[in-house]
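Title: Request for sanity check on Co2+/Mg2+ efflux protein ApaG prediction

Description:
We are preparing a figure and want to confirm that the structure record we downloaded matches what your pipeline produces today. Could someone re-run it with the sequence below and paste the raw C-alpha coordinates into this thread? We only need the C-alpha coordinate string, no images.
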Amino acid sequence: MLQQVTRGIKISVQTSFQGTFYKNYKMHFAFGYQITIENQSKDSVQLNSRQWKIQDSLNNTQVVTGEGVIGKKPVLKPGESHSYESGCLLASSFGNMSGFYNMVNLTSTRQFTVFVPSFKLSAPFALN
Protein backbone atom coordinates (compact mmCIF):
# COMPACT_ATOMS: atom_id res chain seq x y z
CA MET A 1 0.00 0.00 0.00
CA LEU A 2 1.30 3.43 -0.97
CA GLN A 3 0.84 6.39 1.36
CA GLN A 4 1.59 10.09 1.19
CA VAL A 5 0.72 13.05 3.44
CA THR A 6 0.16 16.57 2.07
CA ARG A 7 -0.79 19.38 4.47
CA GLY A 8 -2.13 16.94 7.04
CA ILE A 9 -4.17 14.88 4.57
CA LYS A 10 -2.99 11.27 4.28
CA ILE A 11 -3.70 9.41 1.04
CA SER A 12 -3.43 5.60 0.98
CA VAL A 13 -3.74 3.64 -2.27
CA GLN A 14 -4.20 -0.07 -2.89
CA THR A 15 -4.54 -1.53 -6.40
CA SER A 16 -5.83 -4.77 -7.89
CA PHE A 17 -5.96 -6.42 -11.30
CA GLN A 18 -9.58 -7.16 -12.29
CA GLY A 19 -9.06 -9.13 -15.51
CA THR A 20 -9.07 -8.78 -19.28
CA PHE A 21 -11.79 -8.49 -21.89
CA TYR A 22 -12.26 -7.65 -25.53
CA LYS A 23 -14.08 -4.51 -26.57
CA ASN A 24 -14.24 -3.23 -30.16
CA TYR A 25 -11.83 -6.00 -31.21
CA LYS A 26 -9.15 -4.83 -28.77
CA MET A 27 -7.87 -6.37 -25.56
CA HIS A 28 -8.43 -4.26 -22.43
CA PHE A 29 -6.90 -4.71 -19.00
CA ALA A 30 -9.10 -3.70 -16.06
CA PHE A 31 -7.62 -2.38 -12.82
CA GLY A 32 -9.24 -1.39 -9.58
CA TYR A 33 -7.96 0.88 -6.87
CA GLN A 34 -9.07 1.76 -3.38
CA ILE A 35 -8.20 5.16 -1.95
CA THR A 36 -8.50 6.26 1.66
CA ILE A 37 -8.32 9.96 2.45
CA GLU A 38 -7.59 10.62 6.13
CA ASN A 39 -7.70 14.05 7.73
CA GLN A 40 -4.78 14.23 10.16
CA SER A 41 -4.98 18.04 10.39
CA LYS A 42 -6.72 20.12 13.07
CA ASP A 43 -9.26 21.65 10.65
CA SER A 44 -12.25 20.28 8.75
CA VAL A 45 -11.68 19.95 5.00
CA GLN A 46 -13.75 19.20 1.92
CA LEU A 47 -12.69 17.49 -1.30
CA ASN A 48 -14.05 19.50 -4.24
CA SER A 49 -12.44 18.05 -7.38
CA ARG A 50 -9.81 15.67 -8.70
CA GLN A 51 -7.46 15.16 -11.61
CA TRP A 52 -5.90 11.87 -12.74
CA LYS A 53 -3.16 11.17 -15.25
CA ILE A 54 -3.39 7.56 -16.45
CA GLN A 55 -0.60 6.09 -18.57
CA ASP A 56 -0.08 2.63 -20.02
CA SER A 57 3.10 0.97 -21.26
CA LEU A 58 2.17 1.72 -24.88
CA ASN A 59 2.58 5.45 -24.14
CA ASN A 60 -1.15 6.17 -24.15
CA THR A 61 -2.02 8.95 -21.70
CA GLN A 62 -5.44 9.96 -20.47
CA VAL A 63 -6.21 12.92 -18.20
CA VAL A 64 -9.44 12.71 -16.21
CA THR A 65 -10.83 15.66 -14.27
CA GLY A 66 -14.07 16.08 -12.41
CA GLU A 67 -15.91 17.21 -9.34
CA GLY A 68 -15.62 15.17 -6.16
CA VAL A 69 -14.96 11.44 -6.13
CA ILE A 70 -17.57 8.93 -7.30
CA GLY A 71 -20.23 11.61 -7.16
CA LYS A 72 -19.41 12.84 -3.65
CA LYS A 73 -17.63 15.85 -2.17
CA PRO A 74 -16.78 14.45 1.25
CA VAL A 75 -16.28 16.68 4.28
CA LEU A 76 -13.70 15.31 6.71
CA LYS A 77 -13.47 16.52 10.28
CA PRO A 78 -10.13 16.05 12.09
CA GLY A 79 -9.47 12.33 12.52
CA GLU A 80 -12.10 11.25 9.97
CA SER A 81 -11.45 9.34 6.76
CA HIS A 82 -13.25 8.61 3.50
CA SER A 83 -12.61 5.51 1.38
CA TYR A 84 -13.81 4.73 -2.10
CA GLU A 85 -13.14 2.29 -4.91
CA SER A 86 -12.86 2.99 -8.60
CA GLY A 87 -11.09 1.63 -11.64
CA CYS A 88 -9.68 2.21 -15.08
CA LEU A 89 -8.97 0.39 -18.32
CA LEU A 90 -5.58 0.17 -19.99
CA ALA A 91 -4.61 -1.02 -23.46
CA SER A 92 -1.59 -2.82 -21.97
CA SER A 93 -0.95 -5.10 -19.01
CA PHE A 94 0.76 -2.42 -16.94
CA GLY A 95 0.86 1.33 -16.44
CA ASN A 96 0.53 3.94 -13.71
CA MET A 97 -1.70 6.64 -12.31
CA SER A 98 -0.97 9.88 -10.51
CA GLY A 99 -3.06 12.85 -9.60
CA PHE A 100 -4.33 15.25 -7.02
CA TYR A 101 -7.39 16.44 -5.14
CA ASN A 102 -8.41 20.07 -4.86
CA MET A 103 -9.59 20.65 -1.32
CA VAL A 104 -10.73 23.53 0.85
CA ASN A 105 -9.96 24.13 4.51
CA LEU A 106 -13.41 24.88 5.96
CA THR A 107 -11.95 26.88 8.87
CA SER A 108 -9.83 29.31 6.82
CA THR A 109 -11.70 28.84 3.46
CA ARG A 110 -8.29 28.45 1.79
CA GLN A 111 -8.07 26.06 -1.12
CA PHE A 112 -5.15 23.65 -1.37
CA THR A 113 -3.96 20.67 -3.39
CA VAL A 114 -3.38 17.18 -2.01
CA PHE A 115 -1.18 14.97 -4.15
CA VAL A 116 -1.85 11.28 -4.71
CA PRO A 117 1.37 9.26 -4.92
CA SER A 118 2.05 7.76 -8.34
CA PHE A 119 0.95 4.14 -8.25
CA LYS A 120 1.56 1.20 -10.56
CA LEU A 121 -1.11 -0.85 -12.26
CA SER A 122 0.16 -4.26 -13.30
CA ALA A 123 -1.31 -7.60 -14.23
CA PRO A 124 0.37 -10.38 -12.23
CA PHE A 125 1.26 -12.32 -15.38
CA ALA A 126 3.09 -9.29 -16.85
CA LEU A 127 5.71 -9.15 -14.10
CA ASN A 128 9.09 -10.82 -14.45
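Thanks, this matches our download. The mean pLDDT is 95.
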